[in-house]
Amino acid sequence: MAYTRGNSNQIIVGAAAFFIADSQLSALPHSLDAKYSYRETLSASGVTDVVNVGYTTNGLELAFAPNFGEVSVDQILDVAKLYKQGMKVDMKTEFAEATLENLLIALAYSSDELDGEVGDAGGKVLNLSAGQLGECPVERGIIAVGPGSGDCVDSALAERIYVGFRALSIDNVSVMAKRDAPSMFAVNFRMLPIDSGTYGKIIDRTFTTSGPIPVV
Questions:
Q1: How far apart are CA 153 and CA 135, in angstroms?
Q2: pTM of the model
Q3: Span 160-184, pLDDT tens digits
Q4: What is d(CA 21, CA 24) in angstroms, rounded to the nearest whole number?
């Protein structure tokens, strides 16, 4: 095979659509359709177990942080062996839509803390609860669907899907109301493995139809 410098189609640039499931996952919540983007599958009429968080900023960052132990021996000045003794996976983004639903996710609150009605005036209320002793943290599933190709022609029919089975928001969250800055929620999700030891999946796929799934 002749030498080539590389393939620019493998350079992927672009943001992902971000979806949240209200409970942890163990597999894709809906089947992949060979004809349509998975983003359209999750947005289809009748799908209620995942929600689209809307606009995000600073994209999506999935960080893997392995931890290794060292074995030193007398006969060499460096370590003789490394062994893996820990693993940490984080997923970061910023919710640009300052809805109470997105704030609830960022605070790792239960959906029960969001009341649908406020007296006769209508509207919504998010109860800012301190929690209680022994309370279980709320783990949610994450699905992000982004571009899967750097080819301007084929990029509309290729995608990369990021799936996190167990995600827990762990960082401080600030709610702002400023004259010269939008209110956004920075979220750092700590990813946890399911019992099989799997954090989730990254899937590269192509489909055949660019556009939404028709409502029937």
A1: 50
A2: 0.90
A3: 999 999 999 988 988 889 899 899 9
A4: 7
